[in-house]
Design brief:
Elements lengths: L1 E2 L3 E3 L2 H6 L5 E3 L14 E4 L3 H8 L3 H4 L1 H5 L2 E4 L3 H14 L11 H10 L4 E3 L2 H13 L10 H13 L8 E2 L11 H13 L10 E4 L5
């Protein structure tokens, strides 16, 4: 189960809590509403989201983080370092977007005896190509949810695994290509590579994955 922070469908919490592996995102805002089981937390390891999670101690002490057995960083540091200069020209308001906090997550993971991995840049690059084929309008980066879906389908899941997504509203930050991500995700569902819970949405924890 890949659980975003968007709308939670009726019946999904029970399905999430009996899944073999549950992946959540960042501050896990849908934790509780969308079940409680948490095996992996995928984090934005650059920019303000990373700084917010690492500062103050609230994220580190949260129930979802305490339960997680490993952490994934969705942003390859070298790729985001290379993005800094062109991004400063195209989107100067995002001056701290590429600030790298990977070492902070690595230190926390090490101190608590849990592994951390960085999703390879080629996953991001391949996803960019797929979204371009979907007619994505100019954007900064794919959402963390899309990167994790691509990574899970590309290398993490075994052929016999069923990969289910829940809590993906495909809405949120203006510089994620959510319209193209929805088309891409819909294609994966039609192809049988992904499933969505067959329930109607009830509540929303927040927007986005």
């Amino acid at each position: 189960m890949i659980v975003g922070n968007g709308r939670v469908p009726d019946g999904a919490p029970e399905a999430i809590d009996v899944a073999d592996v549950v992946i959540r995102f960042n501050d896990c805002r849908s934790f509780g509403i969308a079940g409680r089981k948490t095996d992996v937390i995928a984090v934005c390891n650059t920019g303000r989201p990373a700084l917010s999670m690492l500062g103050g101690g609230a994220w580190k002490a949260s129930a979802a983080v305490r339960q997680a057995s490993e952490f994934w960083c969705v942003r390859d540091p070298a790729k985001f370092a290379a993005m800094r200069k062109p991004l400063s020209a195209s989107n100067p308001e995002l001056d701290d977007f590429c600030d790298d906090y990977t070492d902070g997550f690595a230190s926390f993971a090490s101190a608590t005896g849990r592994p951390m991995r960085i999703i390879p840049a080629d996953v991001h690059d391949e996803l960019d190509r797929a979204l371009d084929a979907m007619g994505a309008q100019p954007y900064v980066v794919p959402s963390s949810g899309a990167v994790v879906i691509a990574d899970v389908l590309g290398s993490y899941a075994r052929p016999q695994d069923t990969v289910v997504i829940a809590g993906f509203s495909h809405e949120g930050w203006q510089w994620h290509p959510f319209a193209a991500e929805k088309l891409w995700t819909d294609d994966l569902v039609r192809a049988g590579r992904l499933r969505r819970p067959a329930y109607e949405p009830l509540v929303s924890a927040s927007q986005g994955a």
